[in-house]
Specification:
The chain is an alpha+beta fold. Helices cover 25% and strands 12% of the residues. A 4-stranded antiparallel β-sheet has the order 1-4-12-7. Helix 3 (85-111) crosses helix 5. The chain is globular. The protein starts with a helix and ends in a 13-residue tail after the last strand.
Amino acid sequence: MDMKKFILLITVMTVLASCGSKDRGELVGVKGKKWHPEKPYGMQLIPGGSFIMGKADDDLAGVHDAPAKTVTVRAFYMDETEITNSEYRQFVNWVRDSIVRMKLAVLADEVGLVPEDGGIGEYAFKDADTANMSVYEKYMFENYTGLGPTGYEGRKINHDVDLIFDTAEYPDEYYTEVMDTMYLPLEESYNGQRTWDVKKFKFQFNYMDIQEAARNRSVKRKDVILKEEIEIYPDTTVWIRDFAYSYNEPMHNDYFWHDAYSEYPVVGVTWQQAKAFCEWRTINKNSYQKSKRGSAMVNRFRLPSEAEWEYAARGGLQAATYPWGGPYTKSDRGCFMANFKPVRGDYAADQALYTVEAKSYEPNDYNLYNMAGNVSEWVNASYDASSYAYISTINPSVNDRDNKRKIVRGGSWKDVAYFLQVSSRDYEYADSARSYIGFRTVQDYMGTQVTKNSNNK
């Protein structure tokens, strides 16, 4: 090729490469969609910043467990209140309905019924009719559906038809057969009432152990994607088991189920159940975002780290004993500032016998309610008496999968004032449920510019 032809070829290639381009050949970067932060419903933005974490030196016993240490945390959102019975019931009902719909779809598939047949056929898998599938959906259906132990993995259940719970309105015998398997057997029922067999309602989710993946570069990606299956109903028997020789049957019977307690904090949930709730909340929100084409996926909801919890509980007050400051548990009008056991044996001295509604008492300066008292709260941390000695000073977090002792913070309705202090630490085993432990969730803030000392909002 002579020099003239070579120069002509380069010129043509340059013109073609620049046609239709708006960057004028400059390095302008890839332009993504504009990002507009959206505060999650019911949450408050906690600005990042530093604080002195741990006990003051005058607490001779506590300082060995939580010596003072200056740490910094990044900005995050936190629930204004503890997760309520009503909110947790939304999770329970979602799991219950999904499992029932799956069983209906499986039976419809086995007996060969489709929506046009009516009855249980209306609950058939949505892919029973492939005519309305997109090219991508059809490809995924043909190549990946059913690759699992049940053969129904990847099948889409039908959420468009309402479930029927009134036995008088069951559409056919197949529907009746499925629903019958979800209740306790007749011999375990009484007074003519059949209740759900709560052990059949389990939530399955996958998550990646990013910490392990980062530490072990040779591990395969599939080996750090973990699967869990958790029973999701709260253990209502905690109201009886936690207190021997005490009559608490009304709380066992009504606390989680009755609308009178809808706005009270959920209790009787284990640390694993609290984590499962976080995973479901993420899935639920992102399913909605996906339905709005073009909407960005949200960061996952999770339990707070121990440092995040204490930082948020302090509400921006350095060296405060309680979320409202302190060192007293009464206001200047003589009213108790939280729900706890202020006098030995006198649970009602603070105007509350058990828990109170999640939005009770005055919030702290971050507008968070009941960061002290009402119910203790699970955090995403394992208990180690010496952890403050070796934790990082930036976003400190200690959560060992093999250590089943998980931190609870904030004290509860049955605790004395010491456990309400923002720096007090306590723990419970991850598989334990208690009548005085609940939780709230957090979500990472997208970006790092929001700090306590900044004017950015």
